[in-house]
Design goal:
89% of the residues lie in helices and 0% in strands. Helix 1 crosses helix 2 and helix 2 crosses helix 3. The longest helix is centred in the middle third of the chain and has 133 residues. With 198 residues, it is an all-alpha fold.
């Protein structure tokens, strides 16, 4: 900062001297004025004015200017440090979010896979249960058909036996008593079953 103040002082001095240089010019005709032309009094007053300007600038202007420049430099340094910190925080958060997204994606894939496996198990269970139930229904149907068939055959045999007895009774023209009637029916059924079995 002091180096900048010195540079600013030299610039100001150059401006003051350059501004006062027409005073140093000779009053003669066509010569161009230079810095060192003129009398000693003008040079002395110019130096006194320059020193006074430097003193006033040093006391009232340079300190506030240097303070403002220092504050600005500190502000820029702090802003750069804060921006660096913010960038590092943003990169860290981005990395965390990326990891979370990847973890969530892997978890979702695992859930979907588990759902598929569970659905397959449930599907197999339903299929097995349906097959078992269909088999049970088929077996029950077969048993019911067998029972119905046996019942129908027995009824047919009984009816056939009754008809045979009635026909036989008419033939022999006599009426059989109920016990004899039952015995003949049972014998007829047994005979019919033997014939059907062969």
């Amino acid at each position: 900062m002091k180096k900048r103040a010195m540079q600013a002082g030299w610039v100001a001095a150059t401006v003051v001297v350059a501004g006062a240089s027409p005073l140093f010019a000779s009053e003669g005709g066509g010569e161009q004025p230079t810095l060192f032309t003129g009398d000693l009094g003008n040079i002395l007053w110019s130096l006194v004015t320059f020193v006074a300007v430097l003193a006033v600038l040093g006391k009232f202007a340079w300190k506030p200017i240097l303070g403002a420049l220092q504050k600005r430099e500190d502000f820029i340094r702090d802003s750069l440090a804060q921006a660096k910190q913010d960038r590092e925080d943003a990169e860290r958060r981005l990395k965390e979010y990326t990891e979370k997204v990847l973890a969530a994606r892997a978890e979702a894939t695992a859930i979907v896979d588990e759902g598929r496996r569970d659905a397959e198990v449930v599907k197999r269970g339903i299929e097995d249960e349906a097959k078992s139930e269909a088999k049970a229904i088929l077996e029950r149907g077969k048993r019911e058909i067998a029972i119905a068939t046996d019942t129908a055959v027995k009824e047919l045999y009984t009816l056939g036996g009754k008809l045979a007895i009635e026909v036989a009774g008419r033939i022999i023209r006599r009426e059989l008593n109920p016990r004899e009637h039952e015995r003949l029916i049972a014998e007829s059924i047994d005979e019919l079953q033997e014939v059907a079995g062969n």
